[in-house]
Amino acid sequence: MSIVSRGFHGRREPAAADLPPGQYLTQDFPVLQAGPTPRIDLDDWRFTINNEVGEKYSWTWRELLALPSERPTVDIHCVTSWSKLKTSWQGVSLDSLFEDVETAADHAFVRSYGGYTTNLPLEDLLDGKAWIAYRFEGEDLPGEHGGPARLLVPHLYFWKSAKWVTGIDLRNDDEPGFWESLGYHNYGDPWREQRYTDD
Amino acid sequence: MTRTAPVRRRTPWLAARVRAVRSETSVSRTIVLEVPGWPGHAAGQHVDVKLTAPDGYSAQRSYSIAAPPSGDLVELTVQRVEDGEVSPYLVDELLPTDELEVRGPIGGWFTWRPSEPGPVLLVAGGSGIVPLMAMVRERALAGSTAAFSLVYSVRGPSDVFYASELSAADIPVRLLYTRVAAPDRPAGRITAADLPPSADAKVYVCGPTGFVEAVSEVLLARGQDPASIRTERFGPSGG
Question: Would you call B54 and A4 a contact, using CB atoms and an 8 Å cutoff?
Answer without folding.
Answer: yes
